[in-house]
Known about the structure:
Layout: H1 5-15, E1 19-23, H2 31-43, E2 47-52, H3 55-69, E3 73-76, E4 81-82, E5 88-92, H4 93-102, E6 110-115, H5 127-136, E7 142-147, H6 153-164, E8 168-172, E9 180-186, E10 189-191, H7 194-199, H8 208-217, E11 223-226, H9 230-239, H10 248-264, H11 271-280, E12 284-287, H12 293-304, E13 310-313, E14 327-330, E15 334-337, E16 340-343, H13 346-353, E17 365-371, H14 378-386, H15 400-410, H16 422-426, H17 429-448, E18 452-453, E19 456-457, H18 459-464, H19 471-479, H20 482-485, H21 488-499, H22 513-535, H23 550-557, H24 562-565, H25 573-592, H26 598-611, H27 618-623
Parallel strand pairs: 1-7, 1-8, 2-5, 2-6, 3-5, 6-7, 9-17, 11-13, 11-14, 12-13, 14-17
Antiparallel strand pairs: 3-4, 9-10, 15-16, 18-19
Helix pairs in contact: 1-2, 4-5, 10-12, 13-14, 19-22, 21-23, 21-25, 21-26, 25-26
Amino acid sequence: MIYDRFQQQAIDYINQGHSVIVSAPTGAGKTVIAEHIISNSIRNKIGVIYTAPIKALSNQKFRDFQGQFQDNIGILTGDVSLNADAPVLIMTTEIFRNKILDEAQSLTKYSWVIFDEIHYIDNPERGTVWEESLIFMPEHIKILALSATIPNIDKFAEWIQSIRQKTVKVVVEEKRPVPLHFFFQCQNEVVDNLAKLKRLARGCPNKLNTLISYIRQKNGLPCIYFVFGRRRAENLAQELYGQDFLTPKEKNQIINLYNNLCERFDLKAERSAQELYPLIQKGIAYHHAGMLPTLKEVIERLFTSRLLKVIFTTETFALGINMPSRSVIFDDLRKFYGRYVRTLKTRDFYQMAGRAGRRGIDKEGFVYSRINPKRINFQEVKRIIYGRPEEVRSQLNTSYATILNLYEKYKENLYKIYPLSLHYFQSRKHEQTEALRLIEAKLKLLKELSYIKNDSLTQKGQFAKTVYGYELILSELYDQNILEQLDEFGLGIITSAVVFEPRKNQHMPGLSKTTRKIKRAAEEIHAELKDKERKYRIYPLSKQPYFHLSSTMEAWLRGTRFDKILQYTDTDEGEVIRYFRMAIQILREINEAKVSSQALREKIRETMRVINRDIVDAEKQLREI
Length: 625
């Protein structure tokens, strides 16, 4: 195989035994480097761990690599465990971090870890997991880190090198294999440079059909249309229903493929699959997190078949999932970032724009941005597209479970861990002082609540160190013997409440008497915890449990069909499945806590068995390869 310059450089470093960090544009071919490590490792009987930021990407990598490397590939996420003893094990970064802290001895057989999308260390919600993984990773494991373009890659590598005391080689590729050509739709005209954009007359709204017709005329299909809202994706797809993108031959092919896939994934009777059918016949589809996971997979397979010509999708479609197209459209250049709407980061823009231009097929990729001058000004557009990508910054926020695991190992010396962090490496003195204060505050709270006594973890502390993210609420329920008293229904209700995050103004359905009792106990515990966290100035506060899915969970545990349980909630069906799978992950962590009683474990195993059936069973979906 003939490699590109940056691929060859990285492979040479790997062959010399170095850890490597690669920064290259989306679609440049970073996966080839990972495949080299996997092939070599299988040949030499060396273990490899491949971590991905989201489960969808983990699942896709499992399918891709299994096609290449057969039984040498396994997967371990919160809701899937297939071939877990395989020499190459794919997992989410959370699972890897938990293994490092809870069962480091299980990692002795692995010589490499591949961090896909390592710039995710910058993610406010989950970035801390990457940082903790890098700090606490066993010394014998070498690193391949793959990243989108980040300008502070050298400093980032310098930090990794400083904590691991081993050379980390940096490989940078700035050139895209397929160059991008930028266009703008403004005042319902399409122009190909910013100077023309400034001169457009005001007053004429952008029309979707105008833009799609322009792209079609320029031979710019297939096209991925990025939207920052699920309903918007569906509405735009319906708006395009008047256009038909398929020849009679393609129409027959896509109908047959769609029907076969729906049958294979047991979707024939699903209303959502039937609603998509008229669009599919015209080469149009939508794809977002609110859809059934199996239906999303069907859409992905249709897209890779090249029969789908226009897909309206949210941004997760851009994250590592190998779905290139000839053109990419941005519905807007503003999106919701956690607490507020702001203009897109340059790095996020190129993560999505990088899907334009198929290597080996297209000479260039086309990127269209729809501009509304009332929402965004010329300078902001220029900054997003032509600005320097943002530096990766630490998002360290050490969890209670991490602190408990570290305390068990290092006692009061755990404070010496913080100076190893990227946060310490990047921060000013006052920021370092505040980060250390926060760790101290969490430790004081854990001692006050008797998770730690006489320099050792108590039974409650032992329980808490295994349930990442929801430690305090679940551990207090455990300590007060409430978990022990719950039946299978109660365990399903409380775990779904702990993980659930309602949308703004989301409706809370009526609750059964049992659920109201559980809710009262959980909310009392949470109120006390919140007061104590505020006393110690700990932030963010522990998440509140929300019981919006309780009736849905009860119905599912009674054996009700999935389409029938949706009447009890206004949550999207794909989200219901996601929360049910998250509940299973929490139940699994409680089951694995050494201090959980045999009776509690038996109830948990039964609860997991009943929840994890039919469409909720993530392993079943992966077995349908």
